[in-house]
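INPUT
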Amino acid sequence: MLLDFEKPLVELENRISELKNYTGEKGIDLGVEIESLEKRSLDLKKEIYQNLTPWQRTQLARHVERPNTLDYIKMLFTDWLPLSGDRLFGDDPAIVGGIGKFEGRPVTVIGQVKGHNTKENLARNFGMTHPEGFRKCWRLAQQAAKFHRPVLSFIDTPGAYSGIDAEERGQAWAIANNLYAFARLKTPLIAVITGEGGSGGALALGVGDALLMMENAVFSVISPEGCAAILWKDASRASQAAEALKMTASELLRLGLIDGVVPEPLGGAHRDPQGAAVNLRQELRQILQALQQIDPDTLVELRWKRIRGIGEPK
Amino acid sequence: MTELFKDLFRKPQKYITVRADTMAQDKGTLWIKCPECGEILYVRELEKNLEVCRKCNHHFRLSAPERLSITLDEDSFQEWDADLEAIDPLSFPEYQGKLSTAQEATGLHDAILTGEGRILGWPVMVGVLEPHFIMGSMGSVVGEKITRLVMGAIQKKLPLLLFSASGGARMQEGVFSLMQMAKTSAAIAKLNEAGILYVSVLTDPTTGGVTSSFAALGDVIIAEPGALIGFAGRRVTEQTLNEKLPPDFQTAEFCLKHGLIDLVVPRQQMQAVLAHILLLHSGSQPDISVNS
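OUTPUT
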């Protein structure tokens, strides 16, 4: 998948690799040309990725090659044990959960999974969670609390699934229950929005002691397309809506609605998943260390104070 | 069910005096057509019948003051936090104008009325969402007023009663409004730890971020007949699935059938049922001397 604003960069990168091949094949030294093109490429990269509009970031956040929760699990945890099911209805393929070791200590991981291609996306329901998925998260969080194991939550969804079956099984009730239960869960809880943080379906995995966002992730009450359709009866004005919604990591940090932004390598996480994971690991390590010093009762009270203070009218 | 409660409460019903002018403004005429069955109804009659169609039992939407007036004992309501107003934290396009229009139309500062009152003598902390104020949507003011009400219920050890009528989170306040779902749900968690009763009444319409937070968390959840209750809007679901939805989809009766709520209670019996629940959660008789 190639985004419009990435095209000039990719064209330049292709030319560089062509020149390099040519050098190798013909034995002609094009080192000076290559070097100058590489410098131009780096400048262009900075120019593009350091000046992204909210709508461009939304597109990056949805990029199919962006590392998904399974990729982060592989890069961040060892001794991974996947766990399934909500013990009530089924196992939601749009949610993964399990236990792994982070820096040598066991943690519970829950997260939403989007696919990297159409086939995977169909299998994962495009990352849209069913009620049983939210209940699976809840079950694994309860289990984690029993063993005083921290919970790390990875958020990446267009939103909770809307369909007849989801309504029949109480989609709204499943989300409400997570907001309610996570608020009082007696173990450290860190949530990271890695890609798309779509409304209530994202928030259902987002209540905790710290809410982080990857640099190019977005978090919003409604999709920019949906917002534009309501405001201007015109979904094509999504780029304007993306600005109005203040949905990027830097804007949400400035508004005090999230606790931290995890920098992505220049060019975005999809161009360097390892680099993104390294940055995330560092951030998680620091926050976990701080949270593990706090006794569970105090932790829950601090969590309440943090949530309580959001949107207090003047 | 009427029979069941007839003898329980002999006290004659009186309505409190908080009444907005919305009823007269909305209708403005003597006659109104029932949107459900098409029956032509005399407005005065409809009001007397608590805004329920006498032919098909369609429950018209009530304004928050109307809801309080048919639920609470006369002159028992004391409003809390009346002056809280939205601050437009995102400087969102057209929001200021929308707020002013809604304030003018409803006479309220935002989409909720909260306070203390009595139901057939029983003291309660009560909140009512106003469906005519930007679709009863929950922004920072609604979230904050509910949270303060819950904290008040804990402090005063009084039962909590919330009537929902809302399209969900308020888009114009972005993530601030989304976070009110977390805030109100966390407040209810604290209420439960304190052992305080919470009755949630879902009225037409209750959807989105309100259903997915405090409204779904009652010890007892009641709905009015025919009320639209659900997560996603009907149109969104229809578009997602590209198929027609069953006629009872996302109604109060649908929720009852699928085990999501406890009771469907007609408006005429709501006050008696609420008093019944309060009775079952109290060790004593209500002090009705205050109101008689």
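end of record. The two ends of chain B are 26 Å apart (CA to CA).
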